[in-house]
Amino acid sequence: MHLIIYKKSNGEPLLQETISSFFTTELFNTKDSYEYVVKHFGGKNEEYSEIWLDDETTIQKTYTHEFKVQNGEIVFGNERIIEEPPREPTSGERIELLEQEKLTLQLALAETIEKQEMDKISNQLALAELIETLTIKGVL
Questions:
Q1: HEC string for 17-80
Q2: What gap in Å lies between CA 64 and CA 82, rounded to an integer?
Q3: What are the two backbone dihedrals, phi and then psi, of residue 119, each rounded to the nearest 5 degrees?
Q4: CA angle 7, 73, 69 (to 5 degrees)
Q5: What would the pLDDT profile of 11-44 be if each residue is shown by its tens digit?
Q6: pLDDT (0 to 100) of residue 38
Q7: CA-to-CA distance for 134 and 140, rounded, in angstroms?
Q8: I want to staple 134 with a disulfide (CB 3.0 to 4.6 A). Which of 2, 46, 113, 139 is the partner?
Q9: Quick one: pLDDT at residue 75?
């Protein structure tokens, strides 16, 4: 057995539960299910209704297709697109990515060192010019 609780106003399914075959629809207490729906979707119990399914094909289709409940019947729509989770890179791909990142960082470090060396040379030239100027003026 399969329980679906839906919103009466638009037929939107909000909760699906598969019920053990030991229960009948009369024996299964839906109170907890309704409380869950009210807690998570708001409103009052009276705004929701339930439908019971026992056809395995229909139950399976509720997981693979969009659907609504209209006049107490399931109305199926388009098949749901189930996206594949992104593939994790292989160990080889991870190593290659890390090597590329390492090369990028080494290049950035080399450029930084080159700039520091250029700044150092510029500072040395500026200092030499200052000393020359001060020497010519007799300050040193």
A1: EECCCCCCCCCCCCHHHHHHHHHHHCCCHHHEEEEEECCHHHHHHHHHEEEEEECCEEEEEEEC
A2: 8
A3: -65, -40
A4: 25
A5: 999 999 887 766 665 667 788 889 999 999 999 9
A6: 92
A7: 6
A8: 139
A9: 93
State which amino acid sits at residue 72.
Answer: G
Residues of the chain where predicted confidence (pLDDT) is lower than 50: none
Cα–Cα distance for residue pair 22/60, rounded to 1 Å: 20
Identity of the amino acid at 47:
E
Name the residue among 31, 73, 76 with its Cα closest to residue 52. Answer: 73
Cβ-contact 65, 79 below 8 angstroms: yes
The Cα 106–Cα 95 span in angstroms is: 16
DSSP, res 82:
-
Single-letter code of the amino acid located at 34: Y
- For residue 13, give the DSSP letter: E
The residues pairing with 16 across neighbouring beta strands, listed in sequence order, are 4
Q: Comparing C-alpha atoms, which of 13, 119, 10 is closest to residue 58?
A: 13
- Give φ, ψ of 110 to 5 degrees: -60, -40
